[in-house]
Amino acid sequence: MDPVISEQAVREAAARIKPLAKRTPLLTSRSVDRRAGMRVFLKCENFQRGGAFKIRGASNLILSLPPEDLPRGVVAFSSGNHAQAVAIAAKHVGAPATIVMPADAPQSKMQPTRELGARIVTYDRFHEDREAIALRITGETGGTVVPPYDHPMIASGQGTAALEILEDRPELDALVVCVGGGGLLSGSATIAKAIRSGIRVFGVEPELASDVFQSFAKGERVTIPPSDTIADGLRTPSPGKFTFPVIQKLVESILLVTEAEIRETMRFLMERMKIVIEPSGAVAVAAVLFGKLPPGIASAGVIISGGNVDLDFLKTL
Fold this sequence. Notes:
Layout: H1 7-16, E1 26-27, H2 30-36, E2 39-44, H3 54-62, E3 74-77, H4 81-93, E4 97-102, H5 107-115, E5 119-123, H6 130-141, E6 144-145, H7 152-158, H8 160-168, E7 174-178, H9 183-195, E8 200-206, H10 211-218, H11 243-250, E9 253-257, H12 259-273, H13 279-289, E10 299-304, H14 311-315
Parallel strand pairs: 2-10, 3-4, 3-6, 4-5, 7-8, 7-10, 8-9
Antiparallel strand pairs: 1-2
Helix pairs in contact: 1-7, 3-4, 3-7, 4-5, 7-9, 8-9, 9-11, 12-13
């Protein structure tokens, strides 16, 4: 395993994941541009297989496993989107999948994971360690852990979303990416800087889950208590050991958005662009719509990370 992400690793991932990951559209809207005061290109991973970008990283790792390892299965821990991605990729290669999910994960993410044939083990995210549970299961089964973000194969796969953006729009001034554990941001920053060294890369997270923001400011990984942000996919307590140094090196700054801004962004895109996105998927767009980026940026590529949202939650908007 290559211990670092590289341009080559992301390009190899793009070829490897073609059987499972879609090339998602890059959409524009005059209403979004007016509100943001710049040209905005939205990478719609809400249209991705499984409803989120996570299929890119999960399939990159699972499709690279030796055939003799597959009967022992794969084990993952996730609040939902990575769970579905692992279940899809495992089913494709014929490997059993066990997913450790928080008991309060949205049903819009838990039920499809179960329907894909994965075995779900729930835990209390406020009192139990999901990684410890996953390691216990792999100790019993001999399976392979497929982490949600902190792995070079995962991050390289996630970076293919940014690769597609810059293949379509190589002239962009900035790339704006939500950040939880940092797999998507580290992979995207790596390929973006390799293709266009002058591009400005920004990470965005909720104010209520600001572990990466605090870590970035302090210069070392910070751990925060469990968050109750509506952006459930970004509730990581700390950035990854592997991903954070990449973010430190390549990302200009980490921006914060409020819960109200996340909600308003979801509503705005439903009304103006007729697309449904989940709260985590709205975070990066919210930074653009609410003027969080520094001045001097004329165009930005923004990754909508996913669209798996409970219909009952949508009613609250």
